[in-house]
Design a protein that fits this description.
Rossmann fold; two-stranded parallel sheet; alpha/beta
């Protein structure tokens, strides 16, 4: 038995490192954000009808601090819309996935800015610490603090609970679910999760097919399947049926089934892989689905 452990331990440690690196697949080597001029890999590229004029694009520096930190870190955030209208506009706070930085998600943010027609909803997005030009090192607690820093900024500029929609894609489902269930600076009025995690434990089971505790593979404790039980606000779940990163049956479906709040809706996108939902569903249908849910 001991011999087996000694043989397998290096592989378990490597698996742990790989899983954590997959969850936080950040790129902090860029020197600037390019947005429309970004030529790297993207899930899709919108045509000119979705263009955002420069006066509606605001790159921000925010301070974020966890309870365990003695000093704050600087994170980069983006606001699309008119800052002077935050006191009256509906705002979608978009929490992006585990990959790279805001340039990769720029097309998604642009798309969301058209949810209620042309630039009618404000959209805010941030790079978690260690991503893009945000300082610090990625961590679960840090990610929650970073999203809350955006909420604080929005609140300071006049946003109220009833006009905040939080949207989490993939890894972003963790802070979205956490901060909807356990309110900090603002209480989101509605929750949207696209391709959400069930939990880090489920991801370990899917990846390893071993009946072993998740702690052997990762120190991350994300558990949306439990946190969603505390959420009372209306909830929309969107997921592709061909998601090869977060299987909709073992992840999203568990979260959806565990929700016991006031209202829930789901939209399954046939044939869509992890990053393909908006394009597979069609941009018009995607925006109508979101708009109908937000205005319901």
């Amino acid at each position: 038995m001991k011999k087996w452990i000694y043989i397998c331990l290096p592989f378990l440690l490597v698996s742990c490192m790989k899983l954590d690196s997959n969850l936080f697949n950040n790129d902090n080597k860029i020197t600037e954000y390019k947005f429309d001029d970004y030529t790297g890999e993207q899930d899709f590229i919108l045509d000119e009808t979705y263009k955002i004029t420069g006066d509606k694009i605001h790159l921000l520096d925010l301070l974020s601090q966890t309870d365990q930190e003695s000093s704050p870190v600087n994170i980069k955030a983006l606001y699309i819309g008119e800052i002077s209208r935050i006191g009256t506009d509906t705002v979608i706070l978009y929490c992006h996935g585990n990959k790279w930085h805001m340039d990769f998600y720029w097309q998604r943010a642009k798309l969301l800015a058209h949810t209620n027609g042309k630039h009618n909803y404000g959209v805010m997005m941030m790079d978690y610490r260690g991503y893009g030009l945000s300082s610090g090192k990625p961590s679960e607690d840090g990610m929650y603090a970073d999203v809350d820093a955006c909420m604080k900024w929005l609140k300071d500029h006049g946003l109220t609970d009833n006009r905040l929609i939080i949207y989490g894609f993939s890894l972003g489902s963790a802070p979205s679910c956490e901060l909807t269930a356990n309110v900090r600076s603002l209480k989101p009025a509605k929750l949207i999760l696209e391709a959400p995690f069930g939990s880090s434990a489920i991801m370990v089971q899917d990846a390893s097919q071993l009946n072993m505790p998740a702690e052997y593979f990762t120190s991350i404790k994300i558990d949306n399947a439990e946190e969603i039980k505390k959420v009372e606000q209306p909830f929309l779940w969107i997921h592709g049926t061909n998601d090869n990163f977060l299987n909709y049956k073992t992840h999203g479906q568990v979260v959806y089934d565990n929700y016991k709040g006031s209202y829930k809706a789901s939209y399954m996108v046939a044939g869509a892989d992890h990053g393909e939902v908006p394009e597979k569903i069609g941009f018009d249908v995607y925006l109508k689905t979101l708009g109908d849910f937000i205005r319901k």
